[in-house]
């Protein structure tokens, strides 16, 4: 049943790619074929359903913010993470910086660039990128994840805006560690090469309360998972998060590489890849696929319990 609905949803959404564009402000991302589209659903019962371009590797980009937030909560603690980063939807673009100039201002949440850079500034002194890469591979159940050197260098050569954000954060006391090391760590995490299957694996771990479904190993605490999923629901789709929550109702996080990570609590993880983006930076066709899955499989968080 899931496989049929998923396959039909992907095929029906393919024409929507014409409505979007790849993220050309990072030149390497702009080279991706915008007509790619793939989706995977991994269930707690062990079912693995895939349709479309699910084995094509692409850049994780902002979905890495979920992993960094989870790691920071584990290593630094809730109080440290949210002392100088908020939990509220920003209502602004993911790379906005206007509100950061005021004295005492803090990033709205960890899912926008300012908040993620701040979170990485707490994380970077405590863990190496190599250790984060190993952690990411385990969370995504994908040992093939590597740093995409081309994306990393492309992004580092077009980093002026994020560098400005980081130094504004240092100026207001949000960042208290080395700014350049933080930026390098942030860009490396954004430049990991994944697939839609990797994201479905990560979603399944989060849907299972932080436990690896195959080994039974606890990778994240229940408290960390609860915080992460809640912030994904309220802030994960940039300044389109409210509309997405109403129409789809699944905790999700998008990235400008075209990925969407979605978590159906207790049931399944969903991974999407569709690099044609809307004006907010979300996958146009990917959102259409998720709308269909939510409707047909009754995945909305507020669907009546008898339908779920």
Order of helices and strands: HHEEEHHHHEHHHEHHHEEEH
Q: Give the neighbour order of strands across the main sheet.
A: 2-1-8-7-6
Beginning-to-end CA distance, first to last residue: 14 Å
In terms of DSSP E residues, the strand content is 5-15%
CATH architecture label of the largest domain = 3-Layer(aba) Sandwich
From the alpha-carbon coordinates, what is the Rg to the nearest angstrom? Answer: 18 Å
Number of helices: 13
- Average of the residue pLDDT scores: 94
CATH superfamily of the largest domain: DD-peptidase/beta-lactamase superfamily
Features:
308 residues, Beta-lactamase, 13 helices, 3-stranded antiparallel β-sheet, alpha+beta
Quick structural summary:
With 308 residues, this protein is an alpha+beta fold.
Plain-language structure description:
The chain has 308 residues and is an alpha+beta fold. The protein folds into 2 domains: 166 residues, DD-peptidase/beta-lactamase superfamily (Beta-lactamase, 3-Layer(aba) Sandwich); 127 residues, Beta-lactamase (3-Layer(aba) Sandwich), CATH 3.40.710. α5 packs across α8. The radius of gyration is 18 Å and the shape is globular.
